[in-house]
Design goal:
Keywords: DNA-binding, Repressor, Transcription, Transcription regulation. α1 crosses α3 and α5 crosses α12. The chain folds into three domains: 67 residues, Orthogonal Bundle (434 Repressor (Amino-terminal Domain)), CATH 1.10.260.40; 130 residues, Rossmann fold, CATH 3.40.50.2300; 126 residues, Response regulator (Rossmann fold). The chain is elongated and about 80 Å long. It contains twelve helices and 14 strands. With 369 residues, it is of the alpha/beta class.
C-alpha cells in the first residue's frame, strides 16, 4: 500500500483500482485508526465490545481506505454466516409485509442479515427448506399461516436453530412467538354476544394451521352455542365463498368471526354486493391481524390487532439466544391481542374500552399448544 505525507505525518492511502494493487485489509484499517486488528474485527462483526470512540476511528479509516469487509471469508473463519433465513408465504398480504419490514430491522440491529425466501402458494414449503439450509444460514424464522407443522422440524433436525412467528406447531421442541390466539378468539366471542348476537359463524383458515384452530377454540369457549364453520383457506376468494355458504344455509348467522382479515374482506364483499346486506347492522363481521386494509373506508373492519414490531423483536431475540447456545430449552411466548373497533361490527353498550377507544387486550388463558 502506498503512503503519503499529510501535515508531516505519513498515512495510508487507498489503493487505486487502476494500478491493480491489492485491496486494503483489516490490518491497514487498524494501523490507520490506531487500534488493534481484533478491534476492527469486532467492529465489523458486531461480536464483542468496541468503544464508541474506537468505532468512530475505525469507520473513518475504513471509508478513507475504501475497505469493505469480506463477510463470506469471515464466515468461513468463524463458522457463522450472520445470515438468517426468513421464510414467508403470504407477501400479497400487508400484515406479512409489515412483519418482514420489522424482522429485517430487528435482525440488522442484532448483527444479522435477512435472507428472504418467499414461497408461492403453488409450491410446497417443506420442499423449500433444503434450499434455505443450503445457504448455511445461522438460523431460520418462519412466519406464515400456511406453514406446515413439519417444516420447522426439518431445520431442527439439520441442527439449525428455528423460531416460528405468529404460528405455533404441535412439536413442543420448536421455539415460537405468537399472539394469544385462543384468548383473542374468546374476546371476540364475548364482544359479539354482548352486542346482542345469537347466531354465529366462523370462517376458518387451513386444517393444518394451529393459528386458525386456536382462534376457533377461543371463540367456541365464549359462546353458549357452537358456531357454524366454513373453510376460507386464508384467502379473499375463500372468505367470499365461505360467507355465502354460511348465509345461504338453513340458519344464517348474524355475526361472523374470520380467522384472518383477508378472509373477512371477502366476507364483507359477499354480504354487501352478493346479498345486499349492511355489515354492522344486518351482520357483524370481525377479522384478525388488523392489516392496513382493515382501516380502508370500503371495509372499515373491526379486527384483532397483533403487534408486528413486538412479535418480530421477540422472535429475533429468541433466535439469537438459540444461535449462541443451541442447548437452550425451547421458548414459547404468547402476546395479548386487542380488538380495534370499526363499523363492520355492532358496538355493545357499556363495553369497556381503553384510552384509544379500543376493546382492552385479551387476558384469557394462555395456551401452549
Amino acid at each position: 500500500m502506498s503512503r503519503k505525507k499529510e501535515d508531516g505525518k505519513e498515512t495510508a492511502r487507498a489503493p487505486s483500482a487502476k494500478t491493480g494493487r491489492k485491496q486494503p485489509t483489516s490490518y491497514d484499517v487498524a494501523r490507520l485508526a490506531g487500534v488493534s486488528q481484533s478491534a476492527v474485527s469486532r467492529a465489523f462483526s458486531n461480536n464483542g465490545y468496541v468503544s464508541p470512540e474506537a468505532r468512530k476511528k475505525i469507520t473513518a479509516a475504513a471509508v478513507q481506505l475504501g475497505f469493505r469487509p469480506n463477510a463470506l471469508a469471515r464466515g468461513l473463519i468463524t463458522r457463522r454466516s450472520r445470515l438468517v433465513g426468513v421464510v414467508v408465504a403470504d407477501l400479497y398480504y400487508s400484515f406479512y409485509v409489515s412483519i418482514l419490514h420489522q424482522l429485517s430491522g430487528a435482525l440488522r440491529a442484532s448483527g444479522f442479515h435477512a435472507l428472504l425466501f418467499s414461497i408461492p402458494s403453488s409450491e410446497n414449503i417443506d420442499a423449500m427448506i433444503t434450499d434455505v439450509l443450503a445457504y448455511q444460514v445461522d438460523g431460520v424464522i418462519m412466519s406464515s399461516a400456511r406453514l406446515s407443522s413439519r417444516a420447522p422440524g426439518l431445520c431442527r433436525d439439520a441442527g439449525v436453530p428455528v423460531v416460528t412467528m405468529n404460528r405455533i406447531v404441535d412439536d413442543s421442541s420448536i421455539s415460537a412467538v405468537a399472539t394469544d390466539n385462543r384468548g383473542a378468539g374468546r374476546m371476540v366471542g364475548e364482544f359479539l354476544q354482548a352486542g346482542g348476537h345469537r347466531r354465529f359463524g366462523f370462517i376458518a383458515g387451513l386444517d393444518d394451521s394451529s393459528t386458525s384452530r386456536d382462534r376457533e377454540a377461543g371463540f367456541r369457549d365464549a359462546l353458549a352455542q357452537a358456531p357454524a364453520v366454513a373453510q376460507g383457506g386464508f384467502t379473499y376468494d375463500g372468505g367470499h365463498r365461505a360467507a355465502l355458504d354460511l348465509m345461504l344455509g338453513a340458519n344464517p348467522p348474524d355475526a361472523i368471526f374470520c380467522a384472518s382479515d383477508i378472509m373477512a374482506m371477502g366476507a364483507l364483499d359477499a354480504l354487501r354486493f352478493d346479498l345486499g346486506l349492511t355489515p354492522g347492522e344486518d351482520v357483524s363481521v370481525v377479522g384478525f391481524n388488523n392489516a392496513a386494509e382493515a382501516a380502508w373506508r370500503t371495509y372499515d373492519l373491526t379486527s384483532v390487532t397483533a403487534s408486528a414490531e413486538e412479535l418480530s423483536q421477540r422472535a429475533v431475540e429468541i433466535l439469537a439466544e438459540l444461535i449462541e447456545d443451541p442447548d437452550l430449552a425451547p421458548q414459547r411466548e404468547f402476546l395479548p391481542g386487542q380488538l380495534v373497533l370499526r363499523s363492520s361490527a355492532r358496538m355493545p353498550e357499556n363495553w369497556p374500552l381503553d384510552g384509544g377507544g379500543n376493546v382492552a387486550a385479551a387476558a384469557g388463558d394462555i395456551k401452549d399448544s
